[in-house]
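User: quick one, fold this
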Amino acid sequence: MRRLLYIACAVLLCLWTATGWTQALYLYPRAPVAPRGMTQTVTAIVTGVNVKTGTWSVNHGATLLGTNPCVLNEPCTIGVVDLTAETDTLTFTPTNGAVSPSTSSITFTASPTPATTHPRLYITAAMLPALQAKAATGSPMYTAIKGPTGYGYTASEYYTQLKSGTYTNNGTVYEWSWSC
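Assistant:
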């Protein structure tokens, strides 16, 4: 009889831990990184208890954005913004007291510095000589871009053609309609 009781208790204990009856607090993300001045959100999920509300707190000069304390019995999300580059510790303390507080370390990095070289987008200074060589007069690629005559149209010529409703390309006339 005692052996049966031990087996029943073991099965009950396994079911209890496997089905999430244990009380726990999860914070997501645990260690996020964000640029200073941007808002980083963190979500707290309390399991195994009926009251899932709690209070957020943060150290340093960060500002909390959102409802604090959380008043709904569901995952609680808060936004944190800091104007200085530093690491802030965000703490969620459950109201019920049955679950220990949990923390998330948010690293706010310095703002990225804008590029001062030109051009600034996909094309780099190292790519410019090769692109300029491809745009040389007589280059097949450059000629194809300029159109069948090698001269192409200027922006004002394209506008004039589109405004009139007719666009000619390689002898083909295209009729444009600006109405839906």
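User: anything notable?
Assistant: Helices lie at 2-18, 128-134, 140-146, 155-164.
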